[in-house]
């Protein structure tokens, strides 16, 4: 039985399409060891290294984004698993409690604060920011969680970065029930 011209064309396209898909997924989901910085993964073999993932806060951009010096280089860090109201996006108006969230983040992470950065599955977001769970080095405060506990952030889950989803959700529920921070100040939909 002769093959149709359509089947021949489809077969010719399968190889380049397969190569493209393989290349896309290899680059869209970076592996654990492909970042030049020392941000550790929660499942990295080096996670127990006391110097892995250490940095120093340069400034707070807003409630969920900071700039940290790591190995002599400045890196913009997006705190994983949380979202604070917008306060600096030029395309959006300042949201209810945005300035307060930024101020609280700056109180938790003043300039010069030593931090330990731990990543989840993905190293960077689409804006090239490092994704990290941020801990103050001196007292171990889990900053992502503290912002939720204090009512300045709410959980924001972006799979596959889900290591603390249950913890963040439980903390947000308590903050909401106790009308902390944005839960008391901002109208809910």
Give a short overview.
With 189 residues, the chain is α+β, with helices and mostly antiparallel strands.
What's the number of extended β-strand segments? 8
**Uncertain segments:** 12-38, 43-48
Instruction: Classify the beta-strand content into a percent band.
Output: 15-25%
Mean pLDDT across the residues is 81
Largest sheet composition: 5 strands, mixed, barrel
Structural class: alpha+beta
Compute the separation of the termini in Å: 63 Å
Helix content: 25-40%
Query: Largest sheet, order of strands side by side?
Result: 2-3-4-7-6
- What best-fitting shape do the alpha-carbon axes yield? globular
Q: C-alpha Rg, in Å?
A: 21 Å
Structure description:
With 189 residues, the chain is an alpha+beta fold. It is 31% helix and 22% strand. It contains five helices and eight strands; from the N terminus they run αβββββαββαβαα. The protein has helices at 5-28, 98-108, 143-149, 165-177, 182-185; strands spanning 40-41, 54-62, 65-70, 73-79, 82-83, 114-119, 130-136, 154-155. The strands form two sheets. It has a five-stranded mixed barrel with strand order 2-3-4-7-6. Strand 3 (65-70) and strand 4 (73-79) form a beta hairpin. The chain is globular, with a radius of gyration of 21 Å. The termini are far apart. 32% of the residues are buried.
Main features:
alpha+beta; two-stranded antiparallel ribbon; 189 residues; 5-stranded mixed beta barrel
Secondary structure elements and their pairing?
Layout: H1 5-28, E1 40-41, E2 54-62, E3 65-70, E4 73-79, E5 82-83, H2 98-108, E6 114-119, E7 130-136, H3 143-149, E8 154-155, H4 165-177, H5 182-185
Parallel strand pairs: 1-6, 4-7
Antiparallel strand pairs: 2-3, 2-6, 3-4, 5-8, 6-7
Helix pairs in contact: 3-4
